[in-house]
Amino acid sequence: MLKIITGLNKILSFFLVGFFVVLLGFVCWSVFTRYVLNNPSVASEEIIRFCLIWLIFIGSAYTYGEKKHLAIEALANKLKAKQIAKVQILIYLIILAISVLILIYGGGNLSWKVYLSKQLSPTLHISMGLVYMIFPFSGLIMSIYSVVFIADEIQKLQKEG
Fold first, then answer.
1. Contact between residue 145 and residue 63 where contact means Cβ atoms under 8 Å apart
2. What is the three-state SS of 51-100?
3. What is the pLDDT of residues 78-93, one digit of tens each?
4. Terminal alpha carbon distance of the chain
């Protein structure tokens, strides 16, 4: 199971680095065109915006997969190992529910409706439905992580007896 996590983390880190390089390149180009050429590049600003959105959502999924997300550990420090595992399962179930209901279902419906409406981005003229596909995509990744984490916690509980 942890091989799934490791492989997914490598793929996501590759995409994150790629989006960051693209973002950095277009930010530099945008600054150059604005201040040196006195003719701001509108297209690069839209690319920056879309890259940033995708970077945030993929980065959130990656952070969750690395278990580096925000956590309050004051409660965990007062619980026994078996109780911690049960609380972790509950947390992962809540995150799974949010990922499925809000990101996959809600985000999928949103991106599909926007795609069908043929709404295009102002400058690049790409479908905004494709831009919004990051919602169900990141939700799917977080759901996979949640299922693997839940299975891992259940295995820990079974080993402890």
1. no
2. HHHHHHHHHHHHHHHCCCCCCCCCCHHHCCHHHHHHHHHHHHHHHHHHHH
3. 777 778 888 889 989 9
4. 21
Locate tokens 């996979």: which residue? 144
Sign of CA dihedral 90, 101, 15, 72: negative
The pTM of this model reads 0.86
Q: What are phi and psi of 120, to 5 degrees?
A: -110, 150
Residue 69 phi/psi, 5° resolution?
Answer: -70, 165
> Looking at the DSSP assignment, which residues form a beta bridge with residue 120?
127
Q: What's the one-letter identity of residue 115?
A: Y
Q: Is 158 exposed, middle or buried (0-12, 13-18, 19+ CB in 10 A)?
A: exposed
Inter-residue contact 125 to 50 (CB < 8 Å)? no
Quote the CA–CA distance of 83 and 76 in Å, as a whole number.
9
| Mean pLDDT in consecutive groups of 10 residues from the start of the chain, 161 residues | 86 93 94 91 90 94 87 70 84 94 96 95 92 96 94 86 63
